[in-house]
Amino acid sequence: MEGWKGKMWIKKSQQHYIGTMAHPPKVQVWGAIGLDGTISISVFQGNLDSTSFIAILKESLVKEADKIYGKGNWVLAQDNDPKHTSRITQNFLESEQVYCINNNYFIDRFPPMAFS
Question: How many Cβ atoms are within 10 Å of 116's Cβ, its own excluded?
């Protein structure tokens, strides 16, 4: 069973195999919500980098959020992940008039344990 690793034992001339994939397929989902609706989800495989993140933003978020709220009238909240803060992503967001708030915005206003 190529690509699988696991345990094997023998019990009275029977073989049993319990396996796990060494590198299972990765399926990810990206989506957004707002006060006036949801943005359609994007499903993709593999890892997300700046280029694929921009493609998702362009195809889903920007188009649909601009339709719901109007161009430049909505805010994107995201963390400081490198794909979010890369120069290419920041240039794209600026060109699309997307205002962003990052994780520090929330940390400054809502310290840990503020909601417990």
Answer: 4
Pairing of strands 75-77, 99-101: parallel
List C-alpha distances in Å: 77 to 32, 33, 39, 47: 10, 11, 14, 21
- Three-class SS state of 77: strand
Write down the domain spans for the chain.
Answer: 27-109
Tell me the CATH class for 27-109.
Answer: alpha beta
- Cα–Cα distance, 32 to 101 (Å, whole number): 15
Note the pLDDT tens digit of each residue in 52-68.
Answer: 999 999 998 999 999 98
Q: Are 20 and 28 in contact (CB under 8 A)?
A: no
Q: Which residue has the tokens 């006036």?
A: 36
- pLDDT tens digits for 6-39? 655 566 666 555 666 676 777 888 888 888 878 8
pTM for the full predicted model: 0.66
Residue of 98 and 47 predicted with greater confidence: 98
